[in-house]
Specification:
Layout (H helix, E strand, L loop, with lengths): L1 E5 L27 H5 L16 E7 L5 E7 L1 H5 L3 E5 L24 E2 L5 E7 L2 H8 L3 E6 L6 H7 L2 E10 L2 H7 L2 E9 L11 E6 L5 E5 L4 H12 L6 E5 L14 H14 L3 E4 L2 H7 L6 E9 L5 E13 L5 H10 L10 E9 L13 H19 L3 H8 L19 H11 L2 H14 L3 E14 L8 E8 L5 E5 L8 H13 L6 E3 L2 E2 L14 H28 L6 E4 L2 E4 L2 E4 H10 L5 E7 L4 E3 L4 E3 L3 E14 L5 E10 L7 H20 L30 E7 L17 H5 L1 H15 L12 H9 L2
Parallel strand pairs: 1-30, 2-13, 11-12, 15-16, 19-20, 29-30
Antiparallel strand pairs: 2-6, 3-5, 3-7, 4-6, 8-16, 9-14, 10-11, 10-13, 12-21, 14-15, 17-28, 18-19, 18-25, 22-23, 23-24, 26-27, 28-29
Helix pairs in contact: 6-7, 9-10, 10-11, 10-19, 14-15, 19-20
Length: about 775
């Protein structure tokens, strides 16, 4: 891998501190847990010492995907040696509802059965093995009905979790009809399993009175607190939710962690003992939601040069059995159905389809990847129809001055996509390699190569506006050490380290002086989930605001006791400079404590200037956009469908990076995860609604050998024109969409094989899918 930096000279914003003035921020500091993780010493929930008397839970699920629960005989389960309690819907003292929004998802099924393995009961036993064995003894009688499994099933039955929704500009049907060239088609996009290394897990510990402490592997502690309180019939203040770190989340622990936390809390409430629930990998994959899969129907009209004149798309999403987060996910699919392109007249529609499968949920990119992939598939189809280079079609349609308003009415004010794409076009030697690939394909009847360069424009902010807020709590102790807490959660992405760097920079101390602590709802309340790539933007600002309150108190105190103007008090390198005098930071904090100066503060931040009127389908839902581009080269075997990616060049925009080492890791990891979604990871349900790919033996995530041998990552040398923490940009989700270049490169290779006969390659591009595409199955 080669790391470089490309871009144009940019003016430095007022809030962008000069590089030489920074000692902690923008430094490639290793992840705070990295040493512990490689030694196996970083404690996750299953590593924590179990409290005395801790019980272990197992789930009993429905053997059918649809129908009515007629009877549930748990007598043999209860009688099994070592079983302490069996928990069902009848044990819920509050509301049997673990849904994030719609009130349509019970912790335990009561009468209706909506998906295969839907939880019916839980077993609390002295050991996990005992609980799992006992759960198999349940006698379940269901009046089964034919399940709706696929998108086509749900469309035929008109089965929806939410009404259809659309963005429309102009008269797209007329524009398409009047265009000199027209295409229409259908494209299938598969879902994706989160496959976090640490599965779903929660431990509930009873406290004084009705209080309960829940340690959960969750991206949203406040949601855990709220849902557990709802299920137990308690006020929120009776529940404390805590998470120190997750072994991966990727969106799968935003709303989906609540069910297991609530069940653990119910068991603890019933037994009066601590209870731990850890899902087995097979069960985890069967009963937790995935990335939404889609069928995209499209029609497009365009000029001879490929410029789009009108477009109509319908994104048919399989939501699963309940709403969960589908509203926001599919809305974001629509927000990104333009990707980086000006669509003068457009109709972007979505259908949110209800099926008898587990409810699909958030996944890194939150619907955006599916919207972009649909658009890029259309761009490729236009290129094949016109015989032009797909990159030329892309450049002809990119947003530019005078054509820079999205289909939902937001002005793309910070547009850098064309110079970024053109820079990567040069540094990746795209044109030369395109010529070489064409020559290779002309002489190779079996192996075919393809290349693609695709852009990314990803909006940053929660589209549910009230989530764009964060809180923090900072303590400075008398020795000058700092304790930091905020509402963000750490799932391996480096958020805790980045925020600690911000606080260390504010106080002018080394990173080792800042203690990172677990996220807890009794320290920072009413937090948003760590999602939407907004963790550093929100929590970094809130933590800096808290630190600044303390710093201002210390500044005023130092100015007073040493008789200088506050403007002459500076903090850096572990020292405080007061005019011409200096003293260690810890010495000043000790003096402040003796002088009864408060060294503790909360901080708060809410994202400004964002608006969204969903009813009118217009507004500015995003504070800014993050950009990137990827050039990928791939090769296929037309006899077997086997394929490989040989080279990848990435140029990505992170503004002024808070931590280049962490950001590069996020770009690499996000790209590989996206590549897995589009090449090897295939979810297969049978006609009965059972997930057949529910373990590593049948579900293939990328491995080390799948990573391209020639993998080049560069950061765009720019800054964020909006006021963000040290002019940085979000980096968590956008890199996933860089992998669309891999899919387009494989499609390009398939096009070389069929020679204009039309490529019907659907995602994921497994060997079977590639073989079907080149052989016209």
């Amino acid at each position: 891998m080669r790391l470089e930096s490309f871009g144009r000279e940019q003016p430095v914003a007022d809030y962008d501190k000069p590089e030489h003035a920074l000692s902690v921020v923008r430094k490639p500091i290793p992840h705070d847990s990295s040493r512990l993780q490689v030694q196996g010493l970083a404690p996750y929930i299953d590593d924590l010492p179990e409290p005395a008397g801790c019980l272990h839970l197992a789930i009993g699920g429905a053997p059918k995907a649809a129908g009515k629960l007629l009877s549930l005989d748990l007598s043999a389960v209860q009688a099994y040696p070592g079983v302490i309690a069996v928990i069902t819907a009848r044990d819920v003292p509050g509301r049997n509802d673990i849904s994030p929004v719609a009130g349509d998802e019970p912790a335990f099924a009561e009468s209706g059965i909506f998906f295969h393995q839907q939880p019916l009961f839980a077993v609390a036993a002295e050991t996990r093995d005992t609980a799992r064995r006992a759960a198999r003894l349940a006698k379940v009688e269901i009046a089964a009905t034919a399940p709706l499994v696929t998108v086509a099933d749900a469309i035929a039955a008109d089965s929806m979790v939410q009404p259809d929704y659309a963005f429309t500009r102009g008269k797209p049907a007329e524009a398409i009809a009047a265009s000199p060239h027209r295409l229409e088609g259908q494209f299938h996009i598969g879902g994706q399993e989160h496959f976090y290394l640490e599965g779903q897990i929660a431990m509930a510990i009873p406290g004084e009175g009705q209080d309960i402490h829940v340690i959960s592997s969750t991206q949203h502690p406040t949601e855990i607190q709220h849902v557990v309180a709802r299920v137990l019939g308690l006020p929120d203040h009776a529940v404390v939710a805590e998470v120190r770190r997750m072994g991966g989340g990727f969106g799968g622990k935003e709303s989906q962690a609540t069910q297991w936390a609530a069940i653990a809390a119910l068991a603890a409430r019933k037994t009066g003992r601590p209870c731990k629930l850890r899902l087995d990998r097979d069960d985890d994959m069967a009963v937790t939601g995935k990335r939404h899969d889609f069928r995209v129907d499209y029609a497009v009209g365009f000029e001879a040069d490929g410029a789009i004149r009108g477009i109509s798309t319908i994104y048919n999403a399989r939501a699963g059995c309940s709403l969960d987060l589908t509203s926001g996910v599919v809305d974001r699919t629509m927000f990104h159905a333009d990707n980086s392109y000006w669509l003068p007249e457009c109709d972007i529609r979505s259908r949110r389809l209800k099926t008898n499968t587990v409810s699909n949920t958030a996944f890194r990119g939150f619907g955006g990847p599916q919207g972009m992939l649909g658009m890029e598939r259309i761009i490729d189809a236009i290129a094949w129809a016109t015989g032009r280079d797909p990159l030329d079609i892309r450049k002809a349609n990119l947003y530019a001055q005078g054509r820079d308003v999205t289909p939902y009415g937001q002005h793309v004010a910070d547009n850098i996509i064309l110079p970024l794409v053109e820079t990567l076009e040069q540094t990746s030697e795209y044109r030369r390699r395109r010529r070489e690939i064409e020559a290779f394909n002309a002489s190779s009847p079996i192996l075919k190569r393809g290349i693609a360069l695709t852009p990314v424009k990803f909006g940053i902010s929660f589209t549910l506006s009230h989530l764009n807020q964060a809180g923090a709590l900072v303590h400075v102790y008398q020795d000058g050490s700092v304790m930091l807490n905020h509402g963000g959660t750490e799932m391996g992405q480096g958020l805790f380290l980045k925020v600690a760097q911000v606080v260390a920079e504010e106080f002018g101390v080394g990173i080792e002086r800042v203690k990172i602590t677990a996220t807890r709802t009794d320290k920072v309340p009413n937090t948003a989930p760590t999602a939407a790539s907004a963790g550093s933007d929100l929590n970094g600002m809130a933590s800096r605001n808290a630190a600044r309150v303390i710093k201002e108190r210390l500044t005023a105190f130092a100015a007073e006791i040493y008789g200088v103007d506050p403007a002459r008090v500076r903090f850096r390198n572990g020292m405080v400079f007061v005019g011409d005098f200096s003293l260690p930071f810890g010495e000043l904090t000790k003096k402040a404590v003796l002088a009864r100066i408060s060294l503790s503060s909360t901080g708060f931040y809410r994202t400004p200037d964002i608006t969204w009127d969903r009813a009118k389908a217009t507004g500015n839902p995003f504070y800014y956009f993050a950009y990137g581009a990827c050039c990928s080269e791939a090769e296929i075997d037309t006899m077997t469908g086997e394929n490989r990616v040989s080279r990848v060049d990435i140029l990505h925009d992170v503004g002024r990076s808070l931590n280049p080492a962490i950001d590069i890791g996020q770009i690499e990891g996000g790209f590989v995860q996206g590549m897995g979604w589009l090449t090897t990871e295939e979810l297969v349900y049978d006609a009965e609604g059972r997930l057949r790919t529910h373990a590593p033996s049948t579900y293939k995530i990328p491995v080390a050998s799948d990573i391209p041998a020639d993998f080049r990552v560069a950061l765009w040398d720019g800054y964020n024109s909006r006021e963000t923490i040290y002019a940085s940009k979000a980096v968590g989700e956008p890199p996933v969409m860089l992998a669309i270049a891999v899919f387009s490169a494989l499609a390009d290779a398939c096009e070389a094989a069929v020679k204009g006969a039309g490529v019907r390659l659907h995602a994921p591009a497994t060997p079977e899918a590639v073989l079907r595409a080149v052989q016209g199955w």
